[in-house]
Write a structure and sequence with these properties.
This protein is mainly α. The protein contains ten helices and four strands; from the N terminus they run ααααββαααααββα. Strands 1-2-3-4 form a four-stranded antiparallel sheet. Strand 1 and strand 2 form a beta hairpin. 29% of the residues are buried.
């Protein structure tokens, strides 16, 4: 059950790793993915051990806000991580989507995106992996707090990410239209983390209670996005064939 949980919750993480690794130099991308995942797995196990030991302390509020009519809530360490991580993921997704749609990007071509150093990409992958880890680790601890069992589940999910990372990245590279889809999924992940953080902090914003998005709603939204993308891809191919057929008919009819 834990391995399945880690695999399901790790989908968005794998998607982020596949997209972000393409910002590294082409020759280093596979190494960046492997090192990023390996370092992140090691740190995730350390994080798991710390969270088990300090679970009660982490549930204590760090600070409270009581600005009636604007924002109220009691913020723990976990809720701060959710809120910061959700905001950062949304910022990253919006920035990358705007870059894909920019005129400069169109002039440079799909491979003309600004490259980052391998070290900076690895650092970002590890950082984002830790943010994603909070949700999966807290969900896993709700099932059991036996450290060896949880560690085995994390190692198994990490091994799956290592096996799939290159294939997912290669698929996105060959089918660039799915990169926008992946970024939209990350945007929804950011909304989920913001909602989860606000809900756990019992936050009220502008007089309204912040409600967490259920996992079933999240995965339903992701499935719908993929179905729409697949249908659009098939329809676009059909239109291209129709246009090519009409062009041939026009050429034959021309004197």
């Amino acid at each position: 059950m834990l391995i399945f949980l880690q695999a399901v919750l790790g989908f968005d993480n794998l998607l982020y790793i596949s997209i972000e690794s393409q910002r590294a130099p082409a020759a280093d991308q596979a190494r960046v993915r492997r090192l990023g995942i390996l370092i992140a797995i090691a740190l995730r196990i350390v994080l798991l051990f710390i969270m088990i030991q300090l679970l009660e302390a982490l549930s204590e509020p760090l600070f409270s806000l009581n600005w009636e009519g604007v924002i109220t809530g009691d913020f723990t360490f976990a809720t701060v991580v959710f809120l910061f991580g959700g905001g950062f993921i949304m910022y990253t997704a919006v920035k990358e989507i705007s870059h894909l749609l920019s005129v400069d990007h169109l002039e440079e071509g799909v491979n003309g995106a600004k490259r980052k150093s391998a070290a900076s990409v690895i650092a970002l992958i590890v950082f984002m992996n830790l943010i994603f880890s909070f949700d999966s680790i807290l969900s896993a601890i709700a099932i059991t707090d036996v450290f060896p069992v949880l560690a085995i589940a994390i190692l198994a999910s990490g091994a799956a990410m290592l096996l799939l990372a290159d294939d997912v990245s290669s698929f996105i590279e060959k089918n660039r239209m799915y990169e926008v889809l992946g970024l939209m999924v990350l945007l929804i992940v950011g909304v989920v983390l913001l909602g989860e953080g606000g809900h756990q902090a019992h936050m009220h914003l502008l007089g309204y209670e912040v409600v967490a998005m259920s996992k079933s709603t999240f995965y339903f939204s992701v499935v719908v996005l993929f179905i729409v993308q697949i249908l659009q891809t098939g329809y676009r191919r059909k239109l291209e064939k129709v246009r090519a057929h009409r062009a041939k008919l026009v050429q034959k009819a021309a004197p």
